[in-house]
Amino acid sequence: MSTCDDYTPGEMMSIAAARMLVGDSSCFVGIGLPSTAANLARRTHAPGLVLVYEAGAIGAKPSRLPMSIGDGILAETADSVISVPEVFNYWVQPGRIDVGFLGAAQIDRYANINTTVIGDDYDHPKVRLPGAGGAPEIAAGCGEVIVIVRQSARSFVERVDFVTSVGHGRGPGEREKLGLLGRGPQHVITDLGVLEPDPETAELVMTRLHPGVTAEQAQEATGWELAFAAELATSEAPTEDELRELRELQATA
Asked: Is residue 219 situated within a structural domain?
Protein backbone atom coordinates (compact mmCIF):
# COMPACT_ATOMS: atom_id res chain seq x y z
CA MET A 1 0.00 0.00 0.00
CA SER A 2 1.18 3.50 -0.76
CA THR A 3 1.86 5.87 2.10
CA CYS A 4 0.80 9.49 2.30
CA ASP A 5 2.68 12.60 3.40
CA ASP A 6 -0.37 14.81 3.93
CA TYR A 7 -1.40 14.07 7.51
CA THR A 8 -1.41 15.74 10.92
CA PRO A 9 0.43 14.61 14.09
CA GLY A 10 -2.96 13.76 15.58
CA GLU A 11 -3.81 11.52 12.64
CA MET A 12 -0.44 9.80 12.90
CA MET A 13 -1.10 9.17 16.59
CA SER A 14 -4.54 7.65 16.02
CA ILE A 15 -3.27 5.43 13.22
CA ALA A 16 -0.21 4.28 15.20
CA ALA A 17 -2.52 3.42 18.11
CA ALA A 18 -4.93 1.52 15.86
CA ARG A 19 -2.07 -0.58 14.51
CA MET A 20 -1.41 -1.89 18.04
CA LEU A 21 -4.74 -3.74 18.02
CA VAL A 22 -4.63 -7.00 16.12
CA GLY A 23 -6.62 -10.13 15.39
CA ASP A 24 -9.73 -11.17 17.30
CA SER A 25 -8.64 -9.79 20.66
CA SER A 26 -11.07 -8.16 23.06
CA CYS A 27 -10.53 -4.49 23.81
CA PHE A 28 -12.07 -2.39 26.57
CA VAL A 29 -12.45 1.01 24.97
CA GLY A 30 -12.47 4.46 26.55
CA ILE A 31 -14.30 7.34 24.89
CA GLY A 32 -12.33 9.90 22.88
CA LEU A 33 -8.96 9.07 21.35
CA PRO A 34 -9.07 5.38 22.43
CA SER A 35 -12.46 4.93 20.78
CA THR A 36 -11.27 6.55 17.56
CA ALA A 37 -8.23 4.29 17.35
CA ALA A 38 -10.11 1.12 18.28
CA ASN A 39 -12.87 1.72 15.75
CA LEU A 40 -10.28 2.53 13.09
CA ALA A 41 -8.56 -0.79 13.77
CA ARG A 42 -11.85 -2.68 13.39
CA ARG A 43 -12.57 -0.87 10.11
CA THR A 44 -9.15 -1.64 8.63
CA HIS A 45 -6.82 -4.48 9.61
CA ALA A 46 -8.67 -6.04 12.59
CA PRO A 47 -12.32 -6.64 11.63
CA GLY A 48 -12.60 -9.38 14.26
CA LEU A 49 -11.68 -7.04 17.12
CA VAL A 50 -14.25 -7.27 19.93
CA LEU A 51 -14.96 -3.80 21.31
CA VAL A 52 -16.23 -3.62 24.90
CA TYR A 53 -17.66 -0.42 26.35
CA GLU A 54 -18.20 0.35 30.02
CA ALA A 55 -21.99 0.69 29.82
CA GLY A 56 -22.27 -3.00 28.90
CA ALA A 57 -21.91 -3.28 25.12
CA ILE A 58 -19.92 -6.39 24.14
CA GLY A 59 -18.83 -6.63 20.51
CA ALA A 60 -20.06 -3.16 19.55
CA LYS A 61 -19.79 -2.27 15.86
CA PRO A 62 -20.77 1.40 15.65
CA SER A 63 -21.03 2.98 12.22
CA ARG A 64 -19.98 6.30 13.72
CA LEU A 65 -17.94 7.41 16.71
CA PRO A 66 -20.03 7.11 19.88
CA MET A 67 -20.61 10.31 21.83
CA SER A 68 -20.37 8.56 25.19
CA ILE A 69 -20.27 5.10 26.75
CA GLY A 70 -24.06 5.28 26.86
CA ASP A 71 -24.57 6.14 23.19
CA GLY A 72 -27.43 4.04 21.88
CA ILE A 73 -25.50 2.99 18.79
CA LEU A 74 -23.25 0.82 20.97
CA ALA A 75 -26.15 -1.28 22.27
CA GLU A 76 -27.85 -1.35 18.87
CA THR A 77 -24.77 -2.84 17.17
CA ALA A 78 -23.44 -5.03 20.00
CA ASP A 79 -23.34 -8.83 20.06
CA SER A 80 -24.58 -8.64 23.63
CA VAL A 81 -25.54 -6.04 26.21
CA ILE A 82 -24.93 -6.78 29.88
CA SER A 83 -25.08 -4.83 33.13
CA VAL A 84 -22.26 -2.56 34.28
CA PRO A 85 -21.57 -4.73 37.37
CA GLU A 86 -21.22 -7.77 35.10
CA VAL A 87 -18.79 -5.90 32.83
CA PHE A 88 -16.44 -5.34 35.74
CA ASN A 89 -17.14 -8.31 38.03
CA TYR A 90 -17.13 -11.00 35.35
CA TRP A 91 -15.08 -9.58 32.47
CA VAL A 92 -12.55 -7.00 33.70
CA GLN A 93 -11.56 -7.91 37.25
CA PRO A 94 -10.89 -11.64 36.55
CA GLY A 95 -8.71 -10.72 33.54
CA ARG A 96 -11.01 -11.82 30.71
CA ILE A 97 -10.32 -8.74 28.54
CA ASP A 98 -7.14 -8.80 26.44
CA VAL A 99 -6.48 -5.07 26.07
CA GLY A 100 -7.54 -1.95 27.92
CA PHE A 101 -7.34 1.26 25.88
CA LEU A 102 -7.07 4.43 27.95
CA GLY A 103 -6.36 8.13 27.67
CA ALA A 104 -4.64 10.34 30.26
CA ALA A 105 -4.36 13.93 31.43
CA GLN A 106 -0.99 13.20 33.05
CA ILE A 107 1.33 10.22 32.80
CA ASP A 108 4.68 9.69 34.52
CA ARG A 109 7.85 7.75 33.74
CA TYR A 110 6.29 4.55 35.13
CA ALA A 111 3.08 4.99 33.13
CA ASN A 112 0.91 5.83 36.13
CA ILE A 113 -2.14 7.76 34.91
CA ASN A 114 -3.89 10.80 36.34
CA THR A 115 -7.41 11.76 35.25
CA THR A 116 -8.53 13.13 38.64
CA VAL A 117 -6.94 16.45 39.64
CA ILE A 118 -4.15 18.79 38.59
CA GLY A 119 -2.35 20.24 41.62
CA ASP A 120 -1.17 18.80 44.92
CA ASP A 121 -4.28 19.76 46.93
CA TYR A 122 -7.07 17.30 46.20
CA ASP A 123 -9.71 19.44 47.89
CA HIS A 124 -8.62 22.64 46.14
CA PRO A 125 -6.98 21.58 42.86
CA LYS A 126 -5.89 23.83 40.04
CA VAL A 127 -8.10 21.75 37.75
CA ARG A 128 -10.58 19.04 38.65
CA LEU A 129 -10.64 16.47 35.87
CA PRO A 130 -13.50 14.09 34.86
CA GLY A 131 -12.25 11.41 37.25
CA ALA A 132 -11.62 7.70 37.23
CA GLY A 133 -14.69 6.04 35.76
CA GLY A 134 -13.70 2.44 35.15
CA ALA A 135 -10.06 3.23 34.34
CA PRO A 136 -8.51 1.92 37.60
CA GLU A 137 -10.11 -1.50 37.13
CA ILE A 138 -9.20 -1.55 33.43
CA ALA A 139 -5.57 -0.72 34.22
CA ALA A 140 -5.51 -3.38 36.94
CA GLY A 141 -7.29 -6.30 35.31
CA CYS A 142 -6.94 -6.22 31.51
CA GLY A 143 -4.20 -8.37 30.01
CA GLU A 144 -2.32 -5.28 28.91
CA VAL A 145 -2.99 -1.58 28.57
CA ILE A 146 -2.43 0.82 25.69
CA VAL A 147 -2.41 4.53 26.51
CA ILE A 148 -2.95 7.24 23.92
CA VAL A 149 -2.08 10.80 24.90
CA ARG A 150 -0.60 13.90 23.27
CA GLN A 151 2.98 14.40 24.43
CA SER A 152 3.93 17.62 26.19
CA ALA A 153 5.77 18.65 29.33
CA ARG A 154 2.37 19.31 30.92
CA SER A 155 1.08 15.79 30.32
CA PHE A 156 4.38 13.85 30.63
CA VAL A 157 5.42 14.67 34.20
CA GLU A 158 8.07 13.38 36.59
CA ARG A 159 5.35 12.31 39.00
CA VAL A 160 1.60 12.51 38.48
CA ASP A 161 -0.32 14.79 40.85
CA PHE A 162 -2.75 11.94 41.60
CA VAL A 163 -2.55 8.23 40.74
CA THR A 164 -5.94 7.45 39.24
CA SER A 165 -4.82 4.26 37.47
CA VAL A 166 -1.69 2.35 38.44
CA GLY A 167 0.79 1.75 35.64
CA HIS A 168 4.01 0.29 37.01
CA GLY A 169 3.91 2.08 40.35
CA ARG A 170 7.42 3.09 41.36
CA GLY A 171 9.17 0.37 39.40
CA PRO A 172 9.59 -3.39 38.94
CA GLY A 173 7.41 -5.68 41.03
CA GLU A 174 4.97 -2.98 42.12
CA ARG A 175 2.01 -4.44 40.25
CA GLU A 176 2.65 -7.88 41.71
CA LYS A 177 2.83 -6.44 45.24
CA LEU A 178 -0.57 -4.81 44.70
CA GLY A 179 -2.05 -8.05 43.38
CA LEU A 180 -2.86 -6.64 39.94
CA LEU A 181 -3.55 -9.32 37.34
CA GLY A 182 -2.65 -7.52 34.11
CA ARG A 183 0.74 -6.57 32.72
CA GLY A 184 -0.12 -2.88 32.83
CA PRO A 185 0.74 -0.32 30.15
CA GLN A 186 2.80 -1.92 27.39
CA HIS A 187 2.51 0.85 24.80
CA VAL A 188 2.07 4.60 25.17
CA ILE A 189 1.17 6.17 21.84
CA THR A 190 1.68 9.90 21.38
CA ASP A 191 1.71 12.43 18.57
CA LEU A 192 5.52 12.15 18.60
CA GLY A 193 6.11 8.41 18.83
CA VAL A 194 5.74 5.26 20.89
CA LEU A 195 7.03 4.49 24.39
CA GLU A 196 7.27 1.08 26.03
CA PRO A 197 8.33 0.00 29.54
CA ASP A 198 11.89 -1.20 29.99
CA PRO A 199 11.70 -4.89 30.99
CA GLU A 200 14.17 -4.37 33.86
CA THR A 201 13.34 -0.92 35.24
CA ALA A 202 9.68 -0.60 34.12
CA GLU A 203 10.49 2.99 33.09
CA LEU A 204 9.04 4.22 29.81
CA VAL A 205 11.52 4.18 26.93
CA MET A 206 11.00 5.89 23.58
CA THR A 207 11.20 3.03 21.11
CA ARG A 208 9.78 4.68 18.01
CA LEU A 209 9.51 8.20 16.60
CA HIS A 210 6.94 9.23 14.04
CA PRO A 211 8.24 10.49 10.67
CA GLY A 212 9.90 13.90 10.91
CA VAL A 213 10.05 13.91 14.73
CA THR A 214 13.47 14.22 16.40
CA ALA A 215 14.70 12.86 19.72
CA GLU A 216 15.23 16.46 20.83
CA GLN A 217 11.58 17.26 20.23
CA ALA A 218 10.52 14.22 22.24
CA GLN A 219 12.76 15.21 25.13
CA GLU A 220 11.46 18.79 25.14
CA ALA A 221 7.93 17.41 25.43
CA THR A 222 8.79 15.21 28.43
CA GLY A 223 9.10 16.27 32.06
CA TRP A 224 11.88 13.84 32.91
CA GLU A 225 15.12 12.69 31.32
CA LEU A 226 13.74 10.46 28.62
CA ALA A 227 15.43 7.18 27.77
CA PHE A 228 15.67 6.18 24.10
CA ALA A 229 15.98 2.68 22.69
CA ALA A 230 19.41 1.71 21.38
CA GLU A 231 17.76 0.97 18.04
CA LEU A 232 15.25 3.79 17.77
CA ALA A 233 12.75 2.95 15.05
CA THR A 234 10.64 5.21 12.85
CA SER A 235 6.90 4.69 12.47
CA GLU A 236 5.60 3.86 9.03
CA ALA A 237 3.72 6.82 7.59
CA PRO A 238 -0.06 6.41 7.28
CA THR A 239 -1.35 4.68 4.19
CA GLU A 240 -3.93 6.31 1.97
CA ASP A 241 -6.49 3.72 3.09
CA GLU A 242 -5.81 4.36 6.78
CA LEU A 243 -6.17 8.12 6.34
CA ARG A 244 -9.35 7.79 4.32
CA GLU A 245 -10.97 5.51 6.90
CA LEU A 246 -9.85 7.71 9.79
CA ARG A 247 -11.17 10.90 8.20
CA GLU A 248 -14.48 9.27 7.31
CA LEU A 249 -14.77 8.07 10.89
CA GLN A 250 -13.93 11.45 12.40
CA ALA A 251 -16.44 13.14 10.11
CA THR A 252 -19.21 11.17 11.87
CA ALA A 253 -18.34 12.56 15.31
From this structure: yes
Distance CA 118, CA 114 (A): 8
Residue type present at position 24 = D
CB atoms within 10 A of CB 52: 30
Single out the catalytic residue among 54, 203, 242, 245. Answer: 54
Rounded CA-CA distance 64/86 in Å is: 26
Q: What is the mean pLDDT of each run of 10 residues along the chain (253 residues)?
A: 83 98 94 95 97 96 94 96 96 97 97 97 96 95 98 98 98 96 97 98 98 98 98 97 96 86
Respond yes or no: is residue 54 known to be catalytic.
yes
Identify whether 110 is part of a domain.
Answer: yes
How many domains does the chain fold into?
1
Does residue 124 fall inside a structural domain? yes
Closest alpha carbon to 195 in 229, 166, 245, 223: 229
Reported pTM: 0.95
